[in-house]
Amino acid sequence: MTQQPALTPQRVLALLGAVVLAVATMFAVPSPATASPAAAAACNAPNWVAGQWYPVGSIVRYTDGNHYIAVHENPGYDPVISHWFWDPYTCDDPGGPGGPSGFVVSESLFQQLFPNRNSFYTYGGLTSAIAAFPAFATTGSDTTRKQEAAAFLANVGHETGGLVHIVEQNSANYPHYCDRGRPYGCPAGQSAYYGRGPMQLSWNFNYKAAGDALGLDLLHNPWQVEQNSAVAWKTALWYWMTQRGPGSMTGHNAMVNGHGFGQTIRSINGSIECDGGNPAQVQSRVDTYRRFTERLGVPTGGNLTC
């Protein structure tokens, strides 16, 4: 038998110290985890500036240190006061808004929706573009988010024959998309601004505006839209999220504010198709939207035609 050491005053103090340390450990509150470098980088949003114009999808860091995302375009309204224009945004959540894993349409479903698509229109290109417009298909209820995704994909599918065509097929139209009355003219050439990409971006002024918004020189190099899948998808989302076209609202606002799929048609090609202009084309878009919402398991909502 091993002899036990004597219980001296020093040993009593040591034992009491060990007990106190154990109890403290049991009831300690864990310290917050340090953000990973990737998460920290995701929070690198600019500071909010009063009076600055913010398009839909803009992410800012407010004076309280929190981040907010513009769900409606606005001239720099205060994010903590103007709740209709801004939503809180957790920018370091890799599975949250803007992250590829957060898109309501999976890659396998995307492939099923467009079985004959051109290999140029990659799912990765789409999710990369979505990261630049984090309000897309992340605003509102789960039903609203899926309806917006279905509406966007139905329209770009219609514009491209099921994501088959990268460029406009009628080359006779190519010289018509140069508005030389603009101060910047058509530096890429008279016939350079024909329709390209999922939304068939056309006209020199649209290439100029899209390029300025995306940080790309599309005015001088519009061919990027037919050469880079992510750029092509970004131009389509840029139009969807920020442009009213011949309509009164963007496609995004039409869907998230309950105005219906018909208003997205009006914003894209309403001057030609709506109000009886081409009912067959309108019906084609609606039929595709119906099919896509059914696959996503949500109702179509009202106001389907224009």
Structural class: mainly alpha
Tally the helices: what do you get? 11
Task: Give the end-to-end Cα distance, rounded to a whole number of Å.
Answer: 95 Å
CATH architecture of the domain at 95-176 and 228-299: Orthogonal Bundle
Uncertain segments are 1-42, 92-101
The strand order across the widest sheet is 1-2-3
Mean pLDDT: 83
Class of the domain at 95-176 and 228-299 in CATH? Mainly Alpha
Order of helices and strands: HHEEEHHHHHHHHH
Shape: globular
**Beta-strand level of the residues, as a percent range?**
under 5%
Can you describe this structure?
The protein has 306 residues and is mainly alpha-helical. Among the domains are: 36-92, Seminal Fluid Protein  PDC-109 (Domain B) (Ribbon), CATH 2.10.10; 95-176 and 228-299, Lysozyme (Orthogonal Bundle), CATH 1.10.530.10. It has helices spanning 9-26, 37-42, 107-113, 123-130, 142-159, 204-214, 224-227, 229-242, 251-256, 261-273, 279-296; strands at 59-61, 67-70, 86-88. A three-stranded antiparallel beta sheet has the order 1-2-3, with no helix packed on it. Helix 4 crosses helix 8 (229-242) and helix 5 packs across helix 11 (279-296). The longest helix has 18 residues, at 9-26. The chain is globular, with a radius of gyration of 26 Å. The chain starts with 8 loop residues before the first helix and ends in a 10-residue tail after the last helix. Keywords: Disulfide bond, Glycosidase, Hydrolase, Plant defense, Signal. Residues 104-306 form the Glycoside hydrolase family 19 catalytic domain. InterPro entries: Glyco_hydro_19, Glyco_hydro_19_cat, Lysozyme-like_dom_sf.
